[in-house]
């Protein structure tokens, strides 16, 4: 099996840099909050602050969408919500399957934020026969023997893996063979996937390690190797305010 790509510099269809794609959900979240308050327009500075992103970067990102705002007025909130949703493919419903319904899988299944963003949890799958038929978040868990049928019948293209690390590659292979082309992997292991399959990896312990690094630096001011590190990143949200083409999101390419 071919090794999965770990870096995709630009969005396949429109040449949007991957770092911009990673920030679009942040803009969308901030814009949705404005929309809910019926705010009609927003300046790049206000939106950048709400999204936790630098405003020059925001303007550059929006230029990829062909959205330049109106001088003195700003950006039309509703139109930007529509544009970003369309760009992210959120104007359609995405059935998602979660495999591994333990502590994490159950928490994910119970998370209401997926449905409100167009991700419908179509099925829950677990290898433990004792789990079969048990409802989690109102959805009966199905045995992993059913994985291929469930993927096919629900037209699932996004799979979430929350199994132990040792089972993740095998689960991934079965999901891909069944037709899944995007994987969100929570298991602490690197997955190999064929060309054309996207893997994103979430690892909260890595985020904590990065915070620990900064805590250590704040406490001592000394960098690894004895040199004092530059102060520019202190107080920055490194998951959103990235370097020139740097990308350190909480959800990482696998
Ligand atoms: N990414 C993160 O930030 C993060 C945070 C917490 C946990 N995790 C990881 O998520 C995974 C799940 O953690 P947890 O605490 O929910 O574990 P858990 O033991 O509570 O649940 C794992 C579930 O996977 C099922 N399972 C095992 N093999 C399977 C297979 N082949 N097919 C289908 N289901 C299978 C088990 O029956 C069990 O229900 C672990 O790999 C853990 O390291 C990641």
Automatic annotation (TrEMBL):
**Residue spans binding DNA:** 26-65
| Record carries keyword NAD | yes
Q: Keyword DNA-binding: yes or no?
A: yes
Q: Which domain of life is it from?
A: Bacteria
Q: Where is the CoA-binding domain?
A: 89-190
Q: Where is this region: Disordered?
A: 222-254
For the ligand (NAD(+)), the binding residues are 100-105
Please provide the record's keywords in A-Z order: Cytoplasm, DNA-binding, NAD, Repressor, Transcription, Transcription regulation
- According to its UniProt record, where is this protein located? Cytoplasm
- Give the quaternary structure: Homodimer.
Family under the similarity heading: Belongs to the transcriptional regulatory Rex family.
The role this protein plays is:
Modulates transcription in response to changes in cellular NADH/NAD(+) redox state.
Q: Which HAMAP family match?
A: Rex (MF_01131)
For this entry, the protein name equals Redox-sensing transcriptional repressor Rex
What organism is listed for this UniProt entry? Streptomyces thermoalcalitolerans
Q: Gene name on record?
A: rex
